[in-house]
Each structure stands twice: as structure tokens, then as C-alpha cells.
Amino acid sequence: MTTHPHDASRRAVLASVGALTLTGLLRPVPATAAGTVRLDNMPVALRAGTTQVVTCNRTSGYKARVAFWRLVDGRWRSEFSTTDGRIGYGGLVSPGSRRQGSGTTPMGTYGIPFTFGRWNHSTAWRMPYLKMARGDYWVLDNDSRYYNRFRKLSSGGFRTAGSEHLVDFGDQYEMSAVLDFNYASPVRHRGGAIFLHVNGRGATAGCVSVPRVMMGAVMRELQPAAVPVVTIGDG
């Protein structure tokens, strides 16, 4: 039986993720005052108040190194990471060039408006959270006013064809964080449903994924007051 990820202690979860081995990641990085910082050799566009960052650095093919960073006493420190991160089967692409259905992962820095998954909400998870239900979709109908939004089938306003029926991806979406790619003012045909979620069998269709134990750690660590962002690139 799969156990709820908050059942493990924080210490056990972080220990099982493993320590970073790259010197460039182990060395604390000074914070900058210009709203940007380089973490794992990638530029991160910080937002006002950001003190938590997840970096996804493609290493080869669809594999990536994913690390969780925290700003502590004015310096960025990597808390935990994995070398078994995944990106889309179509590789990386600039956000403005992305096309829906291409299997590409958009580069850049993105906020996390909310999280979702198949578990009841845990008190250890501080981000806004939605538990998936049978009628929940992520709208990718280009003719819908709800394009690139979470929407219940009972609320209507979209075609299910081409949209994501979230519970069909129950293992991968067991714990998920929404990235605000193409979110504030959605451009049709650019795609959406870009999440940070649990690894499946191989590449994603455009999301970033990590091993289950790391996603559990991320869910426990994220907090709204830290204004967390996710940076995707090829450093």
C-alpha cells in the first residue's frame, strides 16, 4: 500500500533524496539585489520576496538535475537534489516558441500558483492545494475561455477532447505543483498544464518530474510566504 508522503519525517525524506555531489551546487551562492541570481549555472529571475527556488538543469536527453534552494542569511543554499529529474520528450524550448502537443518543456522562471494531488490535504503542506476528483480537468481546448486552467467537468465551458483528465495520471500527479507558464494571459496553441510532479516511466509531455521522495520533500518545504519559483534551463 502506498503511504501518504507526509508520514515520513522531514529528516528521513531529505536523507533519502541524497546529498548534492557537485561543488558548484554545494557552495553557498550570495544573493543579489538586482532580482536575479545564478543557481546551478542558470539565471533565476527572482520575484519580490522569493526565498525558495527549484532549479531544473537539463543534463542530457530528457534527463535533468533538479535542486531545491533556500535563501538563508543572505546566501542561497541547496537543500536537496536529484540527478533523476525529467523534462519533455521534445526537449527544451523558449517559452514564446512553444506549441501545444510538441512535448517540449518551456525554459525560464515560473511561479507556483497552487498545488494539487490525489491525497487529502496534509497539514504539512502549506501551499494552496486541491485534491483531484473524477471530474477534474486541465483545460487545453483552444476555443475555451478557460484555456490552461483547472476546471471541473460539471462546470462546463470546455471540450474534454485534448484536455487533461487529471485522475488519468494519478501516479504522476500524486503530488504536483502548477507552474504559471502561459497562465496570466494564456496564448492559444502555446499549451499549458506544465507542472512539477512525480516521475513516470520516462520523459514527460512537457512538465518537469522528479522521484516521488523528492516531490514529497518539495511539497513539505514550499510555502506561500517564500514566493517560490521554478527555473528551467540548460546550464
TrEMBL record:
This is L,D-peptidoglycan transpeptidase YkuD (ErfK/YbiS/YcfS/YnhG family). It comes from the Bacteria. InterPro entries: LD_TPept_cat_dom, TAT_signal. One of its GO terms (molecular function) is transferase activity. Residues 84-217 form the L,D-TPase catalytic domain.
